[in-house]
Amino acid sequence: YFAPASIRRTSRSLGLATEASYRFERGADIEGLREALDRAAQLMADLGGGTVAKGVLDAYAAPRPHPRIPLRLERIRRVIGICPPKEEVVISWCPASAGMSPWRTISRKR
Question: Does position 98 have pLDDT exceeding 80, yes or no?
């Protein structure tokens, strides 16, 4: 993982702006890397007539914490015009059914 602040500072100090520096200084989705790696390996195998080896060597130390999202019933009322019961909001809008902690962003939505 490349720290966005470090990439931005180095790119500016060297006067070297590239597509990669532009992308990484805005923060790469490190948690989506595995999915991208699997897709790239499959495409290379399909185009090159090879096979994809099993297993992945991963040096990713630890997942970054997902930021919490404050959700206030008053804000819901102002935005949609009604104030549903808290229980209904939790059941309807929490991503817990997808195996995620409630009220936290998924990696690509940070």
Answer: no
Q: What is the pLDDT of residues 69-95, one digit of tens each?
A: 777 778 888 888 887 777 777 656 555
Side-chain half-sphere CA neighbours of 9 within 13 A: 5
14 alpha-carbon distance from chain centroid: 29
Query: Is the separation of the CB atoms in 1 and 30 below 8 Å?
Result: yes
Range of the domain at 40: 4-48
How many domains does the chain contain in total?
A: 2
If you average pLDDT over residues 41-47, what whole number do you get?
A: 95
Residue type at position 48 = G
pTM flag (> 0.70): no
Whether 53 is covered by a domain: the verdict is no
Is 37 a domain residue?
yes
Examine residue 56 and state whether it is found in any structural domain, yes or no: no
Are 83 and 76 in contact by the 8 Å Cβ rule? The answer is: yes
